[in-house]
Amino acid sequence: MSEQAILKLEGVHTHIGAYHILHGVDFEVPTGQVTMLLGRNGAGKTTTLRTIMGLWQASRGHVFFDGRAIGGEKGRLTTPDISTLGIAYVPENMGIFSDLSVRENILLAARKARSVDDIDTQRLEWLFGLFPAIRKFWLYPAGKLSGGQKQMLAICRAMIEPRRLLLIDEPSKGLAPAIVQNLIAALRELKATQTTVLLVEQNFSMAKALGDRVAVMDDGRIVHKGEMAELAQDESLQQRLLGLSLGAHQ
């Protein structure tokens, strides 16, 4: 594993029932950077995140976190054990509890806290600064939040305790452009704290704004790895890998 990489996948294959979804996935996530995982629908991006988290087990290959085997042939940790290493996952469906308040959702995610008073006040204020809507709607039922506010709550839940790696699956999906811009601004602030993020995204302007590195998937394989800025500047490569131009999504 590269000295600067906190996560590495080597030759990862994942089967779901009779379906062979991942076919030898290889890439690294450098520490303190935002790595974008891009690709057309059905390319295997969500399966990759779920395999990293142990929600689906790699049938072959290896998943390493900070040099330790957490999935695949050399080690198969459970999802709770993987979480305790400092990895948080924000799924596409956000995973919030609609009938509970924003406050109660945050408290449930803060596993070491029995009450809100036990939560690190400085960390909570930091999250309020990133996502002001969380403070504003603190006592509201989470199910009554807008789509963008729910997404912000999901990220806050993942970050309420210190995390070494954050996996986020399509945070901008279904959001209005103005809300996407707010989300980009918040994630930029998070990026400035050197939080390591692996981000699956279909919104290419968000990918360009946030990504340091990029891995592109197609049919369960990594078909391109490199600097996000290089992909953003190469329209022919965008067209070949993704079928779309980043320039058309400003």
TrEMBL record:
Signal peptide: none annotated. CDD domains: ABC_TM1139_LivF_branched (cd03224). The keyword Ubl conjugation does not apply. One of its GO terms (biological process) is L-amino acid transport. The keyword Transport applies. Residues 7-244 form the ABC transporter domain. It holds the Pfam family ABC_tran. Keywords: Amino-acid transport, ATP-binding, Cell membrane, Membrane, Nucleotide-binding, Transport. It comes from the Bacteria. GO terms for molecular function: ATP binding; ATP hydrolysis activity; branched-chain amino acid transmembrane transporter activity. Belongs to the ABC transporter superfamily. PANTHER family: ABC TRANSPORTER ATP-BINDING PROTEIN (PTHR43820:SF2), HIGH-AFFINITY BRANCHED-CHAIN AMINO ACID TRANSPORT ATP-BINDING PROTEIN LIVF (PTHR43820). This is ABC transporter ATP-binding protein. It comes from Piscinibacter terrae.
